[in-house]
Design a protein that fits this description.
Shape: elongated
Radius of gyration: 36 Å
Strand content: under 5%
Distance between the termini: 112 Å
């Protein structure tokens, strides 16, 4: 009984929108780039370029660090090889 009275009261009331203004955007104004692979607007292109540049800089720094580590490892291997040669000479393994 109570449920039916709520339904009748809800049906009698008009539905009101809480929004006072419609959302208006001009075409291409910071919207998503076209799905067809188009360039998008200038802001999006600039942001993408900045992100790509930052990624390239990080990769460049990582490569520099890897090159340093590679050089250190090669120097370490050269020292070990030299040390092995000295030990074998002292033991008489090579007659030079």
């Amino acid at each position: 009984m109570l449920r039916s009275s709520f339904r009748q009261a809800a049906a009698a009331r008009p539905i009101r929108c809480f929004s006072t203004t419609a959302r208006v955007m001009t075409e291409g104004a910071t919207g998503a780039p076209p799905k067809t692979g188009g360039p998008g607007d200038a802001f999006q292109r600039r942001e993408k370029a900045n992100e790509d540049y930052a990624i390239r800089q990080r990769e460049k720094e990582k490569l520099i660090e890897l090159k340093k580590k590679l050089n250190e490892q090669q120097e370490h291997l050269a020292r070990l090889s030299k040390h092995i040669d000295e030990i074998t000479r002292e033991q008489g393994g090579e007659k030079n």
